[in-house]
From TrEMBL:
Belongs to the bacterial solute-binding protein 3 family. The keyword Signal applies. Residues 91-313 form the Solute-binding protein family 3/N-terminal domain. It comes from the Bacteria. The keyword GTP-binding does not apply. CDD domains: PBP2_GluB (cd13690). Keywords: Signal, Transport. This is Glutamate ABC transporter substrate-binding protein. InterPro entries: Bact_solute-bind_prot3 (IPR051455), Solute-binding_3/MltF_N (IPR001638).
Length: 327
């Protein structure tokens, strides 16, 4: 099992191509669904097929589940709990990104995945298993994050995962740990200052993201294209295939740090909150993670992580989101 090296302040000269790699980092064997045989279905039936129930109407974002008392000591998880099963396995399986410099990226020098999201992973792994390197990372495209949770491929997703009403049909989110804003990345000599300057032009964002919906809803006739990852959008912009890239400011900050010929511009087009995504059928794990985040808010480590990664890259450091619960 490969652990994390001690991290120093990130370099601002990491090559983009090193961050655009996708795949699975198997620090241990990836758990696969049980491969049993299915029951035989009768060949004939006299009943008409029953239509699948309609998906529940999504009306508003639900807040998360409140932590229940003090956290147990690492290695002493409640018997029968989801955390005890993770401890018995010996590793936490987490869906992450390795192409978002500053947020979640593979450091080409150390070979480790690091960033603000990975600091959250380290904290959770330490709380359950007693060490931050007891993690199996599964690298996910943005569009695959909810499916990975729903299918049980990962214990959780910590990957710039925005809380939305639609996603809550399949994912139970922790309390938010960061508030971010959607803005734009453009070439420094583009003359673009606000999104209105891009009316009728080509803008790229990540497939399956909330930023795609925001761009398509703007009454500007934007030609919106999508890619599996934002670094791919930047490559499109560098080759003149699009005029701008839109994403969350913390993601754009990492891209601008790698390419000094780009800059972040414009007002916030939307504001959203990042949280840890887990399975709805594991409320004990959700409450546990919220307890870990409560500690990180109280001891200042959440704010310190944001300062460490984004100082010098954003005019305003992303604020730590306050915890709000529904029970």
């Amino acid at each position: 099992m490969t652990g994390h090296e001690t991290r120093s302040r990130p370099s601002s000269r990491l090559p983009l191509i090193a961050l655009a790699v996708a795949g699975v980092l198997a620090l241990g064997s990836l758990l696969l669904p049980d491969g049993g045989t299915s029951a035989t279905v009768p060949a004939a039936t006299t009943q008409a097929p029953v239509a699948a129930p309609a998906a529940p109407v999504c009306s508003e974002v639900r807040e998360s589940l409140r932590p229940t008392g003090p956290l147990p000591a690492p290695g002493a998880m409640p018997p029968g709990s989801t955390m005890a099963a993770i401890a018995a396995r010996g590793r936490l399986i987490v869906g992450v990104d390795q192409g978002k410099y500053l947020a979640g990226y593979r450091n080409p020098i150390t070979g480790q995945i690091e960033g603000s999201d990975i600091d959250i992973v380290d904290r959770i792994a330490t709380a359950i298993l007693g060490r931050p390197n007891a993690v199996q990372f599964v690298v996910l495209d943005i569009a695959d994050r909810a499916n990975a949770v729903r299918d049980g491929r990962v214990d959780m997703v910590v990957n710039s995962f925005t809380v939305t009403c639609a996603r809550q049909q399949y994912v139970e989110f922790s309390s938010a740990y960061m508030t971010v804003s959607q803005r734009m990345l453009v070439p420094v000599d583009s003359g673009v200052r606000e999104v209105e300057d891009l009316a009728g032009k080509r803008v790229c964002t990540s497939e399956g993201s909330t930023t795609e919906d925001v761009l398509r809803d703007l009454p500007l006739g934007l030609q919106v294209s999508t890619r599996a990852g934002i670094p791919d959008c930047v490559l499109d912009m560098q080759h003149g295939r699009v005029e701008a890239v839109s994403s969350d400011d913390v993601i754009l900050a990492g891209l601008a740090a790698q390419d000094p010929q780009t800059e972040i511009v414009g007002r916030a087009l939307d504001n959203s909150r990042y949280a840890v995504g887990m399975q709805p059928g594991q409320p004990d794990l959700v409450r546990f993670v919220n307890g870990v985040l409560e500690q990180a808010r109280a001891d200042g480590s959440l704010a310190a992580s944001n300062q460490r990664w984004f100082t010098g890259h954003l005019d305003t450091i992303p604020p730590v989101a306050p915890a709000v619960y529904r029970d």
